């Protein structure tokens, strides 16, 4: 059996690439093979600062990575406005694609990327890391249990973070020509994915941005909320912001149980992943407490959640090398997330109206 690791190339030296390069190094079935930047010196420094293996190829252009015949897959963390160009080129060069979120500025752009993946038989996955954490599997077991959780009624999520320094002036996520979706494409992407995840990726019938969205002078979203409504009446709300202290919470409420997780984006300790559940809850007599009390769960994590993501992506790539077809689950989930992002943007632009989601 072929045990050769999947060889990754990275396009660009974005800060998030530091985390993912570490994840590739720690993944058991991948190897960090190449890095490319528009500046050879910048690529060399990035490789040296982030523990690249001595054998890693260092290139002074993105094209050189894509032209290397030994690169199996690329991780692409470039600004969102550049995704279509480089993602399409990557898959046309027969490189499997791990694409940083938001994957595109709108669903039409994503469709161009996925069409290129399908035409070239390349695997696609977006870099929504938390869904690959073993904790997420355990949480799903709970909310799928008809006895302990029942039917999902509502989910609330938030991801807020107030970066220090000159972030609000100079970061690419506040620049309309680089990452025009702002906080919605960054933090909001995770929140929207959590709602879809809890709903078994069933699409809502309507979406609405909540009044109170904050935009900068260039029109980029710095803070916003959203409301999702499904055909069967279940709902979800979310809030994302670059203007509030850090919070990364999910509360999922079913007819029989409730799930809470307070660090769903990045665990507070990467070696353990906690969450709590409670079922069939009632107040004690005289309303002096709860019965039963919430049950605390701690899931041990052997490697960082980003490495679980890389490991799964590499497994899929290896399967394709052995004759399997690309797994379509991930691009389908990505597209659904992007559709809802687009709907929130449309709702904000039209004055916080409800937007119908086409089946």
Automatic annotation (TrEMBL):
<dbReference type="InterPro" id="IPR036291">
    <property type="entry name" value="NAD(P)-bd_dom_sf"/>
</dbReference>
<dbReference type="InterPro" id="IPR055170">
    <property type="entry name" value="GFO_IDH_MocA-like_dom"/>
</dbReference>
<feature type="domain" description="GFO/IDH/MocA-like oxidoreductase">
    <location>
        <begin position="140"/>
        <end position="259"/>
    </location>
</feature>
<protein>
    <recommendedName>
        <fullName>Gfo/Idh/MocA-like oxidoreductase N-terminal domain-containing protein</fullName>
    </recommendedName>
</protein>
<dbReference type="Pfam" id="PF01408">
    <property type="entry name" value="GFO_IDH_MocA"/>
</dbReference>
<comment type="similarity">
    <text>Belongs to the Gfo/Idh/MocA family.</text>
</comment>
<feature type="domain" description="Gfo/Idh/MocA-like oxidoreductase N-terminal">
    <location>
        <begin position="6"/>
        <end position="125"/>
    </location>
</feature>
<dbReference type="Pfam" id="PF22725">
    <property type="entry name" value="GFO_IDH_MocA_C3"/>
</dbReference>
<dbReference type="InterPro" id="IPR000683">
    <property type="entry name" value="Gfo/Idh/MocA-like_OxRdtase_N"/>
</dbReference>
<dbReference type="GO" id="GO:0000166">
    <property type="term" value="F:nucleotide binding"/>
</dbReference>
């Amino acid at each position: 059996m072929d045990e050769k690791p999947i060889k990754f190339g990275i396009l660009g030296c974005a800060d998030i690439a530091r985390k993912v390069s570490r994840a590739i190094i720690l993944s058991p079935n991948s190897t960090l093979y190449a890095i490319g930047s528009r500046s050879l010196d910048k690529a060399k420094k990035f490789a040296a600062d982030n523990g690249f293996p001595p054998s890693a190829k260092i290139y002074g252009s993105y094209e050189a990575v894509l032209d290397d015949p030994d690169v199996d897959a690329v991780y692409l963390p470039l600004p969102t406005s550049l995704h279509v160009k480089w993602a399409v080129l990557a898959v046309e060069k027969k490189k499997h694609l791990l694409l940083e979120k938001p994957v595109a500025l709108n669903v039409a752009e994503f469709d161009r990327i996925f069409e290129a993946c399908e035409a070239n038989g390349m695997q696609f996955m977006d870099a929504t890391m938390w869904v690959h954490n073993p904790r997420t599997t355990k949480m799903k077991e709970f909310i799928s249990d008809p006895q302990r959780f029942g039917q999902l009624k509502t989910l609330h999520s938030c991801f807020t973070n107030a970066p220090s320094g000159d972030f609000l002036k100079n970061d690419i996520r506040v620049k309309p020509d680089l990452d025009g979706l702002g906080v919605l494409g960054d933090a909001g992407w995770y929140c929207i994915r959590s709602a879809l995840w809890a709903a078994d990726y069933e699409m809502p019938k309507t979406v609405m941005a909540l009044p109170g969205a904050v935009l900068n002078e260039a029109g980029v979203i710095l803070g916003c909320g959203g409301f999702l409504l499904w055909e069967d009446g279940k709902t979800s709300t979310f809030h994302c912001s670059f203007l509030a202290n850090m919070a990364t919470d999910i509360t999922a409420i079913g007819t029989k149980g409730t799930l809470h997780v307070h660090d769903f984006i990045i665990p507070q300790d990467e070696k353990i992943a906690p969450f709590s559940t409670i079922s069939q809850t009632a107040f004690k007599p005289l309303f002096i407490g709860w019965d039963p009390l919430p049950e605390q769960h701690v899931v041990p994590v052997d490697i960082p959640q980003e490495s679980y993501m890389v490991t799964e992506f590499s497994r899929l790539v290896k399967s394709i090398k052995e004759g399997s077809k690309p797994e379509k689950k991930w691009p389908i989930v990505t597209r659904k997330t992007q559709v809802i992002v687009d709907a929130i943007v449309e709702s904000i632009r039209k004055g916080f109206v409800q937007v119908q989601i086409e089946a």
